[in-house]
Amino acid sequence: MKKRTIWLIAIVLLFLFVQLIPWEQPPATKDNPDDLLLHQNVPEDVAGLLKASCYDCHSNETVYPWYSKVAPVSWLVRRDVKEGRKELNFSEWNKLKITKKAKALDQIAEYTESEEMPMKIYTIMHPDAKLDDAKRKKIIDWANNTADALFGND
Question: Considering the domain boundaries, does residue 5 fall inside one?
């Protein structure tokens, strides 16, 4: 056999082998009694933007697409969801102290304005999550106004 054929077979076998390594994704649930959208006055259009652009990584309501079950992509999805939930989990919003909420809202505005969120790699596979300037402004304005309202600075 040619070297190229041997390498191709080896790569395919390696790809198939890594599929056998168990990597469980963080659990997803729709039952989230402490969710942001249940406890904070979020306008419907902003709630839709947060659901489309943020909730897969920053809530317990992650929707795992087919490719999230195929290694090595599954490893990246798992890491991103775990890190996203650790940084900010909208499903745990009502459990946060007011100062943590204010910090989270500040970071939402900051990361949205700087276009760090949603992550570019996420919007490639989820084009509906991409934020144009108008959508970005809605989220930033909501986050800033909500942070002000937390401390009665309406």
Answer: no
pLDDT, tens digit (0-9, with 9 covering 90-100), for 9-65: 777 777 666 666 667 889 999 999 999 999 999 999 999 999 999 999 999 999 999
Q: How far apart are CA 73 and CA 1, in angstroms?
A: 31
Number of neighbours of residue 52 by Cβ within 10 angstroms: 16
| Tokens describing residue 2 | 């040619």
Answer yes or no: is 89 within a domain: yes
Helix spans in 19-132 (H): 36-39, 44-53, 55-58, 73-87, 98-113, 120-125
pLDDT on residue 5: 86
Q: Has residue 64 been placed in a domain? A: yes
Which pLDDT value is given to residue 18? 66
* Rounded Cα–Cα distance for residues 35 and 95 (Å): 9
Range of the domain at 44: 24-150
Specify the pTM: 0.85
Residue entry with tokens 């902003």? 46
Tally of domains in the chain: 1
